[in-house]
Amino acid sequence: MADYSQDVKQLLEYIGGSANISAVSHCATRMRFVLNDPSLADNKKIEDISAVKGTFTQAGQYQVIIGNDVATFYNEFTKISGKEGVSKDDVKIASKQNQNPIQRAMSVLAEIFTPIIPAIIVGGLILGFRNILGEIQMESLGQLMIDGMAQFTDAGAPIYNRIVDVSQFWNGVNGFLWLIGEAIFHFLPVGITWSIAKKMGTTQILGIVLGITLVSPQLLNAYGVAGTAAADVPFWDFGFFQIDMIGYQAQVLPAMLAGFLLAYLELGLRKIVPQAISMIFVPFFALVPTVLIAHTVLGPIGWVIGGWVSSLVYAGLGSSVNWLFGALFGFLYSPLVITGLHHMTNAIDLQLVADFGGTNLWPMIALSNIAQGSAVLAIIFLHRGDKKEEQISIPAAISCYLGVTEPAMFGINIKYIYPFVAAMIGSGIAGMISTIFNVTANSIGVGGLPGLLSIQNEYWFIFIICMGIAIVVPFVLTIVFRKYNIFNKSDQTEQAIVTEPELGK
Questions:
Q1: From CA 371, how far away is CA 468, in angstroms rounded?
Q2: Strand, helix or coil at 128?
Q3: Which pLDDT does position 138 carry in this prediction?
Q4: Could you tell me the CATH superfamily of domain 5-98?
Q5: What are the tens digits of pLDDT across the range 347-401?
Q6: Cβ distance 392 to 53 under 8 Å?
Q7: 27 in catalytic set
Q8: What share of the chain in percent tops pLDDT 90?
Q9: Active site residue: 2, 27, 71, 292, which one?
Q10: Active-site residues (predicted)?
Q11: Average pLDDT over residues 205-212
Q12: Which stretches of 273-409 are DSSP H helices?
């Protein structure tokens, strides 16, 4: 087992001492600090510590990359510093002291969507696979599998020309997978209201019940509202007023507004209702009014606002200057990640899926991830032989290509600046091409190279071209920028050193 005592003492000193640490925790590879005064941390000296592989600040947390031995390092640090570790959730709460109001709002948004993203990714992959089964034309396969017995329409075109038409097995798979897809997307409000309750520290089962009341089968399905005449919309009749029985399947904003109302009502009631009767009255007077207000006020308002947002984005993507929209989004997405503002794209993506059956934003996010990874790949090539940096750069490049960019951006690209800019340019070009050809994803998916699996199958070819652009352009530009010292202040090109040959050689 490595002895990190000296490294720990140095880190403690360079970070400003124990008095400067408000909270400390660790994750899989990093120490996470909330510092009372972040300016006291000496980045240069900290990064010179042998056990440290890089530093960065995000969401109010000062993070020090240690690697796989972080648990051992952390235990030594808490022993020497005298600082007791806390959970990652406690660190997140403490870190808000270093965040401005916008960062706090984005942090809340991130904490709401992060727990449900794995389900959304699975749903996106399922929709993509179902598209292959149900949409790709398989005329020759169909004729082969039914031994030339295909029936023909009057026009002479084969009826059985898709995978689901020629294989009962895959037809069954297609139908079965919709069970999961429907659960994820149609019942998305349940996940959102639950996640808000969890984040706000309120009763999670009430959040789940609230979500169910927004998507109950007795309600008119949100997807059927547009095709239903006003006179045919079901309603609850209270005598002197009526409430339309409209569901909010796949709707994001109505669920968020209702979820926060429930949470704040419960928190407020806890303060005024005596403990002896709180078990009865707090859940009742929090849930019932919330459901009523959700179906009369918040739901309709959220639906309208969500429609405005998705329509505005969709208009930009479909306008005559959509190439500019795509170029700017692709170019600026990585800086948004630094600020935390990128978390708002999750809500926009899901609203686009609900309103238009797919999202044009998410493919550009996947391309941005690839571009950042390609810039790191160029740094690995340029700095080959630097074993210490490769402990950061190689895993960072892999994680980028699998959809996680923070290690690459904070550990490598932002450190040198020029690879970060090269990645932004490559992402901008790829985003522009993607938008021009209307590349659409079924939903949010696995970022990076596996993102292809979430793209609607008719756009696969052009998305592969965009992926090639996101790989080649950042790699080449990173090398060019370093060679000619463009956007390069800290990684100057090595000059050739000419020495006289030694005698006898």
A1: 10
A2: helix
A3: 56
A4: Glucose permease domain IIB (3.30.1360.60)
A5: 888 888 888 889 999 999 999 999 999 999 999 999 998 887 888 888 889 888 9
A6: yes
A7: yes
A8: 38
A9: 27
A10: 27
A11: 96
A12: 278-293, 299-318, 322-339, 344-356, 361-382, 387-401, 406-408
